Each structure stands twice: as C-alpha cells, then as structure tokens.
Amino acid sequence: MIHLGVNVDHIATLRQARRTYEPDPVWAAALAELGGADGITIHLREDRRHIQDRDLRVLRETTAVKLNLEMACSEEIAAIALAVKPDQATLVPERREEITTEGGLDVAGQLARVTDFVKKLQDAGISVSLFIDPDLAQVDAAVKTGAVAVELHTGQYANSSGKVQQQELQQLRKASHEVLQRGLKLHAGHGLTYRNVQPVAAIPGMEELNIGHSIVARAVLVGMVQAVREMKDLMVWAASHPEHFH
Ligand code: PXP
C-alpha cells in the first residue's frame, strides 16, 4: 500500500517565528500518526531555520512510524544522523538562501561524494533515499550510489498547469518506470497538494509520498474555528468573573 510521510517542518517554522515552544513539531507528529501517517519527515537544515536538533532527538524517541530525515550531504548533519539514527535519510540539495528545496540533488554531477554519504549512512543501518529530478541520467547515477530508494521531485509537476503539467506527469511516469526497472524503491514529493496528489499517487509502484506544506496549511485552517472559540470562551468567562483575578 502507498505510504504517506508527513513533513512537519512548517510547524517548526511557526514556532521559530517567535522563538517559543509552540507549536511543537513533536506534538504535530503524534497527531499526524493518529491521523494515519505512515512516516514523519523532517529536514534538519544547516541553518536550523525550522527543525532543531532537539526535535530530531525527541522525535527519534517518540515516533513509532518511519522517521525520515531529509539532509544535505554535510559532514555535520551526517554525524548527527549517525548518532540519532533515523530509519531513513533522504539526501537533498541545500542552498542557504533558498525558500525551500529547489531542484533535485545532482547525483550524476557528484557521484563519488554522494556514494560516500550513502555508504556511511547505510552501513549504520539507515536506508538512504536520493531526492532527484525525474531525469533518467539521475536515476542511473542513483543506482550507482547503492542507495535503496529515490524520491522523485514533483515540484515541476506541481508548479505547472494544463499541457505542461501533463508533460511533467509523463516525465514522472517514465522516470518511475526506470526506477522500478533498476530495482530501487520509488518515492515522490514536493509541492503536492489536495488538488494535484492523485495522479502521482496513481503511478504504478509508488511506495511513499512526502507531503508537508499543504497538510500544515490545511491543519492551520481547519483548526481555526475551534482555536478562536476556545480563546473567546476564556476571555468572556474571565471578564464576567473578575473576582477570580483580583
Ligand atoms: N520531499 C523533499 C525531499 C523535500 O525537501 C520537501 C520539502 O521539505 C518535501 C518532500 C515536502 O514538500 P512540501 O512541503 O512542498 O509538501
């Protein structure tokens, strides 16, 4: 059955906006699990803009489903991964100034370096997935690294429409077929929403989708009515019982 990995990075983005303790991505991960998430995905970025080292450590303790750590090919982050041991590491490109991960990892262009990271992580029992564009040369390079899986970048598909989107979907199908033919596990993600997810989920052999922003965005809005009601109830009660506060 196809698996959903819920990326809780943007719960941490909201927390970091105030450098406070809420909302906690650990709580969000537990709720995502209750909702049926098959995995929890987080990206420990080198600049720590959202997920913090503590989040990874606590999630390792509390997550019962698959814990997937997105990470750059960085010695610092690899050392943390080797110590904390997520179930899976997804190697992604990382440029500090970008808003989110743009473009897949250029595995073909840095084969020796990526292979080195794959080996280090997989020797420690962490299965490695490579986040790549749906490009046959990148699939070929991914096979050479020894990684067990690839995550096809769906950003181009997600950000296009009409005929171009159909072409992007075709490209995803073609790359997916090649991934399976070459014996790798097939994952996909980035930019998937409630409107565009289904054609990707329907690609034969698709095993895992990692989705973050759209789920977090919806969670904020579907929870808004209750959140406002609870705040208002507290205010109205206090205003009508001032003796309790003086
Ligand atoms: N997969 C990878 C490799 C990513 O880098 C991201 C973004 O952190 C996602 C999936 C999730 O993307 P989105 O937040 O657009 O759903």
Walk me through the structure:
This protein has a single domain, classed as Aldolase class I (TIM Barrel, Alpha-Beta Barrel), CATH 3.20.20.70. It has helices at residues 9-18, 25-34, 53-62, 75-84, 111-123, 136-145, 155-158, 162-181, 197-201, 213-222, 224-240, and strands at 3-7, 39-43, 66-71, 88-91, 127-132, 149-153, 185-189, 208-211. Helix 5 (111-123) links the parallel strand 4 (88-91) and strand 5. The protein has 246 residues and is of the alpha/beta class. The longest helix is centred in the C-terminal third of the chain and has 20 residues, at 162-181. The protein contains 11 helices and 8 strands. The protein is globular. The structure holds pyridoxine-5'-phosphate (PXP). Pyridoxine-5'-phosphate binds at residues 7, 9, 43, 70, 90, 92, 100-101, 131, 151, 189-192, 210-214.
Provide tags for this entry:
8 strands; TIM Barrel; alpha/beta; 11 helices; 246 residues; binds pyridoxine-5'-phosphate
Short summary:
This protein has 11 helices and 8 strands. It has 246 residues and is an alpha/beta fold. It has one domain: TIM Barrel (Alpha-Beta Barrel), CATH 3.20.20.
